[in-house]
Amino acid sequence: MDKWGLGLCSVGLLITLLSTDATNMNWDFLSLVTGITFIVAGIVMVRKSAKKAKLKDGGKSS
After folding, report:
1. What is the span of the domain harbouring residue 33?
2. How many domains are contained in the chain?
């Protein structure tokens, strides 16, 4: 697994989780979009590294 991609996903999840104001339940849309962008970028990095590892092993790993 790609540690940078997983780290980026976790940071994105924290930003998304904290993008709401607890006092009046309003969303901060800039933080929400930033968190979702980090999540998508992390998923892309993890999938790309998994694909590269699978090609390197000759398709023998699951």
Report:
1. 3-58
2. 1
